[in-house]
Amino acid sequence: MTAPASTGIVHLADRTPQLAGPEMVAALVPPPQFADATFETYRADPAYPSQQETKDLLQVFAGAAQPAKGGFFRKAKRAETKPGVYLDGGFGVGKTHLLAAVYHAMPVRRKYFGSFIEYTALVGALGYQKTVELFRGSELLCIDEFELDDPGDTMVMTRLLGELVSSGTRLAATSNTPPNALGEGRFAAQDFLREIHAMASSFQTIRIDGTDYRHRAVDGHAAVLTDAQYEAALADAAVGGLASDDDFSALLSHLARVHPSRYIRLIDGLSVIGLRDVEPFADQSAALRFVAFIDRVYDAELPIRATGTSLDLVFPDEMLAGGYRKKYLRAISRLVASTLA
Predict the structure, then answer these.
(1) What pLDDT score was predicted for residue 76?
(2) For labeling, which of 10, 45, 198, 219 is most exposed (least CB within 10 Å)?
(3) Cα-only R_g, the chain
(4) Could you give the residue range(s) of every CATH 3.40.50.300 domain in the chain?
């Protein structure tokens, strides 16, 4: 079999990746940008005291610090009685960094770190009972970006986590609350606890305030290239690496034929993602698949080069006003960061 190219330009629409259950399990570690995340490297914003308070509490949860006799650590000491912590906050306040820090700091042998969609994809690939057997006896499960908008997936995860907690597994989870969504920040934790009502008492909820660090130094718009700039950018990337080059509509059609659990393999080996003739979404299913794809691109720290419509404008107002608002806003935040990388 011919080895895959390591340099040049490829088309994602030509890739048909496969991913077996054991490979999916092996991938349950923090993504590259958080491979070395620690509590020490988390920079709490002094303008938002809850960031430092959360860091202190999680250090106790992970066994990296002892609760003090007074002050905030009184709360931390109470949190030790619960097997799970849930971090509630907006985009870019460091929740994933802190979650990865918990993973790295906790001195246990069997621990896993994955996004909500990775765990549900694993259930889909292996079946519920085999997934339970796989994780039973694990000491820590970290779940990034817990989703509440799919009742079926939420019920499956609630049942899975309930079985694991009963066997001694500790849990750490995050979810996103967009800072400009009126009222949502106040109720995100309650939404989470309501949806996982069967085991809500297992979680200590922690609110983290702050601004999106990805937008602190940018104007909030994704970079758009001319055709000439696009060609030059991909040519440069292809000299020492592997760049993808796809028409936006062709990629969306291909994503519909690839299970989201395989998106990580779809971008394997790439150094740059190229998208031609980007245009706004007209179909919500296509938009949601693209969000899942961008999550994997962002985790892999891949820059995006694009022509056409600015990628922060691809989700129409009616989509942003709907039930998947949080997902779309998260994707916009990541798209802006990836095009400027």
Answers:
(1) 47
(2) 219
(3) 20
(4) 31-210
Cα–Cα distances (Å) from 122 to 32, 109, 119, 265, 318, in that order, read 20, 21, 5, 14, 32
Determine the Cα–Cα distance for residues 13 and 245; give it in Å rounded to an integer: 9
Report d(CA 74, CA 191) in Å as an integer.
26
Question: Which fold is adopted by the domain 8-17+216-340?
Answer: Rossmann fold (3.40.50)
Q: What is the CATH architecture assignment of 31-210?
A: 3-Layer(aba) Sandwich (3.40)
Helix (H, G, I), strand (E, B) or coil at 170: strand
List, for residues 199-243, the tens digit of each pLDDT value. 777 888 888 888 766 554 444 689 999 999 999 999 999 998 999
Q: What is the pLDDT of residues 115-160, one digit of tens each?
A: 888 888 888 878 899 999 989 999 999 999 887 666 777 788 888 9
Query: Which residue, among 301, 327, 330, 30, has the nearest Cα to 153 in the 3D structure?
Result: 327
Query: What is the value of pTM for the model shown?
Result: 0.72
